[in-house]
Amino acid sequence: DAGVTQSPTHLIKTRGQQVTLRCSPKSGHDTVSWYQQALGQGPQFIFQYYEEEERQRGNFPDRFSGHQFPNYSSELNVNALLLGDSALYLCASRPGSGLSYYEQYFGPGTRLTVT
Amino acid sequence: AQSVTQPDIHITVSEGASLELRCNYSYGATPYLFWYVQSPGQGLQLLLKYFSGDTLVQGIKGFEAEFKRSQSSFNLRKPSVHWSDAAEYFCAVGVREYGNKLVFGAGTILRVKS
What we know:
The complex is a heterodimer of chains A (115) and B (114). Chain A is mainly beta. Chain A has strands spanning 5-7, 10-13, 19-24, 31-37, 44-50, 53-57, 64-68, 74-78, 87-94, 105-106, 110-114. In chain A, the strands form 2 sheets. In chain A, strands 2, 4, 5, 6, 9, 10 and 11 form a 7-stranded mixed beta sheet that branches. A 4-stranded antiparallel beta sheet of chain A has the order 1-3-8-7, with no helix packed on it. Chain B is built from no helices and 12 strands. Chain B is globular. In chain B, strands 2, 5, 6, 10, 11 and 12 form a 6-stranded mixed beta sheet that branches. Chain B has a 4-stranded antiparallel beta sheet with strand order 3-9-8-7, with no helix packed on it. Chain B has strands spanning 3-5, 10-14, 19-21, 24-26, 32-38, 45-50, 56-58, 64-68, 73-78, 87-95, 101-104, 108-113. Chain A binds chain B through residues 4, 31, 33, 35, 40-45, 48, 50, 55-56, 58, 90, 92, 94, 101-109, 111, and chain B through 4, 32, 36, 41-46, 49, 51, 90, 92, 94, 96, 98-107.
């Protein structure tokens, strides 16, 4: 049973560019959340997708946007990159119902470096 | 607003010694609490969780945690630490009103000396 997978593993971009990160949820999971983890900090919630719609959003600017596809996979897009966007981006998935509803499983993350 | 405090940024223990990592939370309702572990360059692995019931919960790798409502705490413990336990540990509270988003503490880095 594959867990949460993310691609790419590492990414280097220049200020002002745009980036797309991808996530495939754990089998049986239909809800995907994205978190940003800056160096030396705990993860911060960006947003959550369920049924192809953004359901919850954290305190992040509109430069951060996302998408969820019918197969439950998800993308995180960041426009007009800033140096401060350099971080580990984590994807987490959980089922939309059932006993594991409150458990989130994380992928290995994508390390984004903005120069 | 919900928050999680992990007062210790770094902790160093000797291999074989006991471990306790502290976590305090602020949340208006009955909390759902989690401990995750992160090895360098890796994602987060769920160690254990508390939803309700017995306040002492067992997790993977020999870890346990105790929920104390009166102290708003959820401390992580292990009786005997192994060198492979060296990692960063995060406490988190699940916010049910916001799709169970997780609010994390800043983490505690555990170093194990032989």
